[in-house]
């Protein structure tokens, strides 16, 4: 595959600046979050947004779909939602004088699925997303149906501490490229919201690119050059998440899978395009590592009791693991 050229990347960065500007008009005071959402889309990944209700998670996804001019469907996940409610079901209809079952596509058959409050649905319904997220297709009664291209799942969830939620299984979490935390607004941001928004109204934005342009951007990301030293850094970083492989891994019960390494590489390439570069760097990997790894690390009992979080351990890993394989790792002090 031919590597991307500087001209192609410069044109792409221009389109992405327009997308970033549009999303910043939808969601105030969350520029870092917006940059990571765009990075995830460019990397062809699914994104999990976690935060308390009312912080703008749903509005962010709606604004993204409008700016990209993509078909979008919203699914409100509730405890009584069934798998067929999202994948679709066969319906008995009369066809050419005969009665037969005809498949009626569910809301997954779209470009962007907004899975709102995904952790309020039962595990059985959550698992119905697995094949769609990984294979970009669904199987109903033994027949496979391809999903549209592109296909993204942007899911929102409330913190697990809230009543009436079900933790997502590790297998499904691993299929999200990013897990992003939506934090509460500052006083200045709240003042801006109050001054420019009204309750019950949505921000109006116009498309900034066509589906064809987005397709070319997605193809361009795959052609970004990944230097061997950066690939080696990704491999060492993921390996260090496993127990006994690094000082920072103390407290980790299960580390990240090879899918995490692929996610880091794809996200780093997307980050390079946003910055207008034709190759990835160590800093690209470091800037997306927390979003990629935080939901792929399982802590042991003692670490949880002591109040450690996956975020803490990922940040320690980033401090400990050097960019170059022959460099001396930094010594970490244990709390």
TrEMBL record:
<dbReference type="Pfam" id="PF17863">
    <property type="entry name" value="AAA_lid_2"/>
</dbReference>
<dbReference type="Pfam" id="PF07726">
    <property type="entry name" value="AAA_3"/>
</dbReference>
<dbReference type="InterPro" id="IPR027417">
    <property type="entry name" value="P-loop_NTPase"/>
</dbReference>
<dbReference type="InterPro" id="IPR011703">
    <property type="entry name" value="ATPase_AAA-3"/>
</dbReference>
<feature type="domain" description="AAA+ ATPase">
    <location>
        <begin position="43"/>
        <end position="186"/>
    </location>
</feature>
<dbReference type="InterPro" id="IPR001270">
    <property type="entry name" value="ClpA/B"/>
</dbReference>
<dbReference type="InterPro" id="IPR041628">
    <property type="entry name" value="ChlI/MoxR_AAA_lid"/>
</dbReference>
<dbReference type="GO" id="GO:0005524">
    <property type="term" value="F:ATP binding"/>
</dbReference>
<dbReference type="GO" id="GO:0016887">
    <property type="term" value="F:ATP hydrolysis activity"/>
</dbReference>
<dbReference type="InterPro" id="IPR050764">
    <property type="entry name" value="CbbQ/NirQ/NorQ/GpvN"/>
</dbReference>
<dbReference type="InterPro" id="IPR003593">
    <property type="entry name" value="AAA+_ATPase"/>
</dbReference>
<protein>
    <submittedName>
        <fullName>AAA family ATPase</fullName>
    </submittedName>
</protein>
């Amino acid at each position: 595959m031919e590597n991307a050229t500087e001209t192609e990347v410069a044109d792409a960065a221009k389109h992405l600046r327009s997308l970033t500007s549009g999303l910043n008009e939808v969601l105030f005071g969350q520029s870092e979050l917006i940059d990571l959402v765009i990075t995830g889309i460019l990397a062809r990944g699914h994104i999990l947004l976690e935060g308390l209700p009312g912080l703008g998670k749903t509005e962010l996804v709606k604004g993204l779909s409008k700016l990209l001019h993509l078909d979008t469907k919203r699914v409100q996940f509730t405890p009584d939602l069934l798998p067929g409610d999202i994948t679709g079901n066969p319906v008995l209809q009369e066809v050419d004088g005969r009665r037969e079952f005809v498949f009626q596509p569910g809301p997954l058959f779209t470009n962007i699925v907004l899975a709102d409050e995904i952790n309020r649905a039962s595990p059985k319904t959550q698992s119905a997303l697995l094949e769609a997220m990984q294979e970009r297709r669904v199987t109903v009664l033994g027949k496979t149906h391809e999903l549209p291209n592109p296909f993204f799942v942007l899911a929102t969830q409330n913190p697990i501490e809230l009543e009436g939620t079900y933790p997502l299984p590790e297998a499904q979490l691993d299929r999200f490229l990013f897990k992003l935390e939506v934090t509460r607004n500052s006083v200045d941001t709240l003042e801006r919201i109050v001054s420019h928004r009204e309750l019950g109204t949505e921000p109006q934005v116009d498309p900034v690119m066509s589906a064809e342009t987005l397709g070319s951007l997605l193809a361009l990301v795959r052609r970004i050059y990944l230097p061997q030293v950066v690939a080696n850094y990704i491999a060492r970083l993921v390996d260090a998440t496993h127990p006994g492989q690094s000082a920072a891994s103390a407290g980790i019960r299960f580390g990240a899978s090879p899918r995490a390494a692929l996610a880091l590489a794809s996200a780093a390439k997307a980050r390079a395009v946003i910055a207008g570069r034709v190759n990835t760097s160590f800093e690209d990997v470091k800037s997306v590592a927390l979003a990629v790894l935080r939901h792929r690390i399982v802590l042991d009992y003692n670490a949880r009791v002591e109040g450690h979080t996956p975020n803490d351990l990922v940040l320690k890993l980033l401090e400990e693991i050097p960019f170059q394989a022959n460099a001396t790792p930094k010594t970490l002090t244990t709390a």
